[in-house]
Amino acid sequence: MQARGQTPVCRSVRTGAFVVDDSLASGTVIRRTETVQTEINEELGLEFHYKVRWLDPCTYQLHHKKLVRGPERFAGKKGNVLTVHITNTSATGYQAVATSNYSTLVLPVKLKFYQ
Fold it and tell me: Would you list the domain boundaries of the chain?
């Protein structure tokens, strides 16, 4: 848990396995290395691969979305970039805010460590 105004310790969540803990994408498992992120939602039959680019210790971008499994309508368009800023870390996971260059939506997300 971070004190108000304190920078989160993002190193602890830079890589690893996480599960989305919100109603929009509940059950989505994310596996991230320094350079690649895979997202799988078995319930929806979806799998995506992204290239990861870190902008600073707590902000990364997801590029080159590749739909591995699922309906074609979920495929990304060339040039789409999702930017994720980690706002808080804890012993159980992290919270972040996601924005993109293809929508005005600002999406808060909560992720837990996945075993």
Answer: 10-113
